[in-house]
Write a structure and sequence with these properties.
It is built from 14 helices and 3 strands. By secondary structure, the chain is mainly alpha-helical. It folds into 2 domains: about 5-80, no CATH class; about 130-370, no CATH class.
Length: about 375
């Protein structure tokens, strides 16, 4: 009686049975030769005919064909669990010590075409604004910008008044602490802009509630970086003013706020808003900037053109901080944003845009010839 042949993928196992013998009503197959042929497959198995080792006795209730089919199906199912050439690659073991967990994921899962919509959920956003009038400051822009800086100045002033009311007006240490709080706010504001910039560059779209407009503007900036250099000052920075005032005004009215906390928040919020102008200056040539701005850029107090230029190379990854750029080397050198992106991906399945290595758009570095001359832009 011949044995059964099981074929899975490219694994083929075949056997031929020789003479048979019968003992006490049992028929046992005696294999005389087995040939195994393998092509690009790890393992193969030979399954003996189930009817050859069954003791049917005198029973007439056993359907031998059905029994054979059941055993064949069960054997094939078991084999598929262990040998399946179509199975997806195993999830990589993440190397935490090297800080490159995101790279381990990408190297394996980028080959999965069925994961492409998940890995690259959205293309780079950004709507091209053609009308030069949209780059001109309006009364509304001036109103919200004035309100924001007034609230920031009031917070810093409240800190000074708090020192005087506490009877420490003559104590140089109290004033030094207040100034130190302002400097700390400036230093940390660079970090804050980096986290914010990373988030809007890599997640969300124009359709995102509340933040959709800001997200679209930041992503569109990658396509048309020249637009930020054409905006008038108040027009450029007013976008974040309403949201920032939702922080400064309640703090200004809150009772019991310490003087140092007032100074810190006043300076921090103003730097967050002004960072958009620092960002614009980093896209301009030195000949277009005031000498004082160039000097501050050279000193590292403000973000420089050279310091920010690396961010505008696809996949637009790294160098996210836009106040002074001080934190960029620290964050990028320790792959902080890469690790944050990996945490987000593992928790939600959403990958950042900077994981993509292809972009279907051309970057426009310069404004069209003659654009905006009627507004002296």
């Amino acid at each position: 009686m011949s044995a059964i042949t099981i074929t899975l993928g490219r694994t083929v196992a075949a056997s031929s049975a020789g003479a048979t013998r019968s003992t006490r009503g049992r028929t046992v197959a005696k294999k005389s030769a087995v040939e195994v042929s393998k092509r690009n497959a790890p393992v193969c198995r030979v399954v003996q005919d189930p009817a050859a080792s069954m003791d049917v006795g005198s029973s007439i209730d056993i359907d031998m064909d059905m029994r054979r089919r059941i055993v064949q199906m069960d054997t094939a199912t078991t084999l598929r669990k262990t040998i399946d050439v179509r199975a997806p690659p195993p999830r990589p073991r993440l190397n935490r010590s090297r800080g490159r967990r995101f790279a381990a994921i990408l190297s394996t899962w980028r080959q999965r075409a069925d994961l492409a919509p998940l890995l690259y959920p959205q293309a780079m956003g950004g709507t091209m604004i053609q009308d030069p009038a949209a780059f001109v400051s309006t009364d509304y822009h001036r109103l919200v910008t004035t309100g924001l800086f007034a609230s920031c100045a009031a917070l810093v002033a409240r800190g000074g008044v708090g020192i005087e009311m506490a009877g420490d007006g003559g104590d140089p240490a109290a004033w030094a602490s207040l100034v130190g709080s302002g400097l700390l706010a400036y230093w940390l504001s660079d970090l804050g802009t980096g986290v914010f910039h990373w988030s809007v560059d890599n997640y969300g779209s124009k359709a995102t509630p509340v933040m959709g407009g800001i997200i679209d503007a930041f992503q569109g900036h990658h396509k048309y970086p020249w637009t930020i250099t054409k905006r008038q000052f108040v027009n450029n920075i007013h976008v974040t003013c309403p949201a920032t005032m939702c922080v400064t005004v309640p703090l200004l009215l809150a009772p019991g706020l310490a003087p140092n906390a007032c100074a810190f928040m006043g300076v921090f919020c103003s730097m967050i808003v002004l960072s958009q102008q620092f960002h614009a200056w980093s896209h301009m040539k030195k000949s277009q900037l005031p000498e004082s701005v160039v000097a501050l850029q050279d000193l590292g107090v403000l973000l420089s053109r050279k310091g920010h230029g690396a961010h505008h190379r696809p996949p637009f990854k790294g160098n996210y901080c836009i106040v002074s750029g001080f934190w960029n080397d620290i964050l990028d050198g320790n792959e902080v944003f890469d690790k944050m992106a990996t945490v987000v991906y593992e928790a939600t399945g959403v990958a950042p845009r900077c994981w993509s290595e292809s972009h279907d758009f051309e970057v426009e570095e310069e404004a069209p010839e003659g654009w905006g001359k009627e507004y002296n832009l």
